[in-house]
């Protein structure tokens, strides 16, 4: 709070391909700082999915990729920069070096493992299921709950909801539900928030899901694993729009006996991978070992610079080398 009081020009940043938690925490903090009459900007590396465009304040969000030089100027002249929902500046892509270079004080608020070192203040809690929840806890502990607005509560709720799969994983802490109850007291409509995010998909997205599950899924029962994959061509066929494949990676986990799921998607100039697991299988280790990635124990991601086919090959080889570990996890060893 002291760092905030001293700052005038504040910038909030979050990770590439912002999700509900990245935007939710950024916007909640944005509104909170705006109420303190600060000059605040949110800069995100690239665009975000259409089903997050209802969020209060979302039109104020600046997208680095659309106007890099303007964003670089803002970063350079900021007094204070918040890094929300990511641990190292590599996660903000091309914007990273300008963030590192800025003379501003830097505050990290995040829930990923292994926070980087170039922050003046680091609030890193990997045991907390979302950055939005962590931000709420900080507001609450600073005695600011009473002043929180409905808009701030909506943003925080959205982040908590999306990072826990609508409270189906990482959400056994009773305090999560105490926080939800405190947010509901701010008059939020949690059912409407759910609907805005999950009942707003395009018809193409739904058909793409059907196609992926029926034509682009491989299941390896003996390895308790499954793979989904989509080439650029597949995506074009269904007029892919950003965010359309959000959540696909979770579906194979519903198959009995499957606790490791991977989704490989050919992107513009790279191949993007998403990993999800259940039980103690560390998909962040798998992501780090083969795809220069990381994340949480049960939800991680990575990138591959090479062809789509090569990425699938590397994945399959990686899976073989994890055979013993997968079997041990299945047997609770
Ligand atoms: P998603 O599959 O939803 O894109 O990402 C799931 C989680 O994996 C994110 O919360 C993030 O922590 C992590 N993650 C995604 N992509 C990457 C990546 O390229 N590198 C690292 N280190 N983590 C990632
Ligand atoms: Mn998050």
UniProtKB/TrEMBL annotation:
One of its GO terms (molecular function) is nucleic acid binding. Pfam families: DHH, DHHA1. Residues 238-317 form the DHHA1 domain. SUPFAM superfamilies: DHH phosphoesterases. It comes from the Bacteria. Residues 9-160 form the DDH domain. This is NanoRNase/pAp phosphatase. It comes from Proteiniphilum saccharofermentans.
């Amino acid at each position: 709070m002291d760092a905030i009081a001293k700052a005038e020009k504040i910038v909030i940043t979050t990770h590439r391909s912002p999700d509900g938690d990245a935007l939710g925490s950024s916007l909640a903090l944005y509104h909170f700082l705006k109420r303190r009459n600060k000059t605040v900007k949110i800069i995100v590396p690239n665009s975000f999915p259409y089903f997050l465009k209802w969020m209060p304040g979302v039109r104020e969000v600046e997208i680095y990729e659309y106007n890099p030089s303007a964003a670089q100027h803002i970063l350079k002249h900021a007094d204070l920069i918040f890094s929300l929902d990511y641990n190292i500046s590599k996660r903000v892509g091309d914007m990273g070096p300008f963030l590192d270079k800025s003379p501003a004080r830097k505050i990290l608020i995040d829930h990923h493992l292994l926070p980087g070192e170039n922050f003046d203040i680091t609030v890193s809690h990997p045991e907390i299921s979302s950055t939005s929840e962590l931000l709420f806890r900080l507001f609450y502990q600073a005695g600011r709950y009473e002043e929180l607005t409905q808009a701030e509560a909506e943003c925080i709720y959205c982040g908590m909801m999306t990072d826990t799969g609508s409270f189906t994983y990482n959400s056994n802490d009773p305090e999560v539900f105490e926080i939800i109850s405190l947010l509901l007291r701010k008059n939020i409509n949690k059912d409407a928030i759910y609907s805005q995010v999950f009942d707003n998909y395009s018809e193409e997205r739904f058909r793409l899901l059907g196609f992926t599950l029926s034509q682009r899924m491989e299941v390896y029962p003996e390895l308790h694993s499954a793979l989904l994959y989509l080439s650029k061509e597949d995506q074009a066929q269904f007029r892919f729009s950003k965010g359309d494949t959000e959540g696909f990676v979770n579906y194979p986990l519903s198959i009995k006996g499957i606790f490791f799921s991977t989704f490989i998607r050919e992107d513009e100039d790279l191949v993007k991978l998403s990993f999800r697991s259940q039980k103690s299988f560390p998909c962040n280790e798998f992501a780090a070992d083969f795809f220069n990635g990381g994340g949480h124990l049960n939800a991680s991601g990575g990138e591959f610079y090479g062809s789509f086919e090569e990425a699938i090959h590397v994945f399959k080889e990686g899976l073989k080398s994890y055979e013993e570990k997968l079997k041990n996890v299945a047997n609770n060893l």
